[in-house]
Amino acid sequence: MATPTPPHRVALLAFPGIRPFDLSVITEVWGTDRTDRGVPAFDLRRVAATPQPIPLRGGLTLTPDRTLAWLPRADLVLVPGLDDHVTPAPAPVLEALRRAHARGTPIASLCGGAFTLAQAGLLDGRRATTHWNLVELLRTHHPDITVEPDALFIEDRGIWTAAGTAAGIDLCLHLVRTSHGAEVAATIARSMVTAPFRTGTQAQFIEHPTPRTDRSADALASVRAYAIRHLDEPLTVGQLAARTGMSVRTFARHFTAANGVTPLHWLLDQRVAAAQKLLEHTDLPMPEVARRTGFGSEITMRQHFGNRLDTSPRAYRASFAARRG
To answer: Would you say 210 and 203 are in contact if contact means Cβ atoms under 8 Å apart?
Structure first.
């Protein structure tokens, strides 16, 4: 009998001043049992310097269930955002983050949690992001960081940072997708009634106006649904625009305003996501996967896979086959 795979161990790093919203996001993604829907079991622990209850904004209290001594067991460490972005985190927390990084444990922060990673010195010489309204503050207090304002989330050598609020959900789902596959991430997203796939390169703050009428919004939603149902076809921006009754230029402007990426970028993201699911759950030959997801050829699929996921379709399939083991 095969030995059961141990649950993925996730540490939610807790200390005074962290945001209740980010705690809720992390708990919803990794702390809810969805094994009846094919989601693997997770072992989420609230880790703090001491076991004492931690007061949070809004009259809430968080009770840790592990101390920092548990952190070496974690497969992933998550740092929530902060109410106060300048006051240093407790010294034991910062030292624990440094030790976790030295062990090679992936570390991710949500929103202003990037300031905690910066205080620990983990972002020096790295690219990072945070909420658009905190970008200049992070640059001012930590000039050795390359702060990228136009991203939902960024990874740089094992350290992840995310922009504000909803971008934290995007990063959490992306981390699940990276470790457990697109279908698992999509199942969690469906239960949260949120979008299952937004890439980190999508703009976090859109200057352009969103569609002004319900009719425009409905047309864009309809064309997105149509595109997903017909990914195996050689769709063009012109064809999608025609289905909305807009000119190509007007369609592209409204689509980008509503989604934060161009129609072509969005379409390629959907094709990659569809290819991930087929690679995870089928033994279809690579040319057939490419055909069903609209890439046309294995070469084209491999190029876009590499650009977005930094791996090849064959390596991606092999990694999930090994996990199913």
So the answer is: no
Phi, psi angle pair for 261, to nearest 5°: -140, 160
Secondary structure class of 248 (helix, strand, coil): helix
CA distances from 99 to 45, 46, 95, 126 (A): 18, 18, 6, 18
Kindly tell me if the per-residue pLDDT of 190 is higher than 90.
no
Q: How far is CA 52 from CA 10, 62, 164, 192, 233, in A?
A: 20, 9, 28, 30, 58
CB atoms within 10 A of CB 320: 17
At 206 the pLDDT is: 43
* H or E element in which residue 67 lies: strand 66-67
CA angle 114, 73, 277 (to 5 degrees): 70
pLDDT at 215: 59
Tell me the three state secondary structure of residue 79: strand
Q: How far apart are CA 220 and CA 131, in angstroms?
A: 27
CA 70 to chain centre: 25
| 197's tokens | 């796939």
CA 8 to chain CA mean position, Å: 17
Tokens of 53: 């209850």
